[in-house]
Design a protein that fits this description.
This protein is mainly α. The protein folds into 2 domains: about 160 residues; about 60 residues, no CATH class. The protein is built from 11 helices and 2 strands. The protein has a two-stranded antiparallel ribbon. The protein is globular and about 75 Å long. About 20% of the residues are buried.
Length: about 240
């Protein structure tokens, strides 16, 4: 997949605006340090990015293009300025200039009074997926701190609640387990209650049937039942008379 296709996929748009950097800011600083040591090459290809893994190489190229440090595979004058300023007092101003050019939608906010949610909403103009936007915001905040961009305490110390990429909040797993357990327990209680009701009802029917039976005398009982009753009674047998 080409870098441009990857950028569009991350943005979720066929004509997407450039996705802002979402690599680690420390990785960018390491790259700038290497360029300052070895010099800025005429083009940024795999040999220049060989110390990075394949996936991070693509992310680095997207970050450099987004920051205006590279066009195609060619470094821009802004790249040379930033590399030259690296580890000097001029680096803050050079980086701040790149940030303002890359994030106009963020600097449109009053960063001294804006909230973390306002900052997150500002990034949505890029149309990037939410999981990518979290990394974009992280990169910006670290870069802004390195560039000494004035920011209020809400943004500097606040955090944006995470949501899944489909925009819906996931219920805590523990809550789901608890709910399932409660449903099973309630089901068992209802089943037991129904069983108790059936047992009670059956007993009620038996009692009603007993009450409906006629109070038979010995002469009205079946022969076997009458004989048993006399045998068990207190009287004497005819042979004893």
């Amino acid at each position: 997949m080409s870098d441009e296709a990857l950028d569009q996929e991350l943005s979720g748009e066929g004509h997407a605006s450039r996705t802002p950097p979402y690599i680690s800011f420390a990785t960018l600083l390491t790259f700038l340090k290497a360029l300052k040591t070895d010099g800025v090459p005429p083009q940024i290809d795999k040999s220049v990015l060989s110390k990075l893994s394949g996936g991070v190489q693509g992310q680095m190229k997207l970050a450099l293009r987004s920051l205006g440090l590279m066009e195609g595979d060619k470094p821009t004058d802004h790249m040379q300025v930033l590399v030259d300023a690296y580890e000097t007092p001029e680096f803050e101003a050079a980086l701040r200039e790149r940030l303002k050019a890359t994030y106009p939608y963020v600097f449109a906010l009053d960063l001294m009074t804006a909230t973390p949610t306002m900052l997150a909403d500002a990034f949505k103009v890029t149309k990037a997926r939410e999981d990518v936007l979290r990394k974009c915001r992280t990169f910006f905040l670290h870069a802004a701190k390195a560039a000494n961009v004035p920011m209020g305490p809400r943004i500097a110390t606040g955090s944006v609640p995470r949501t899944p990429s489909n925009g819906t909040r996931k219920r805590p797993k523990a809550a789901k387990v608890k709910e399932v357990g409660e449903e099973q327990e309630n089901g068992a209680r209802q089943e037991k209650s129904a069983t108790d009701q059936i047992s009670d009802k059956a007993l009620e029917y038996k009692l009603v049937d007993l009450l409906k039976e006629p109070d038979l005398g010995d002469d009205e009982r079946p022969a076997d039942e009458s004989r048993d009753a006399r045998a068990d009674g207190p009287g004497q047998h005819p042979a004893d008379e």
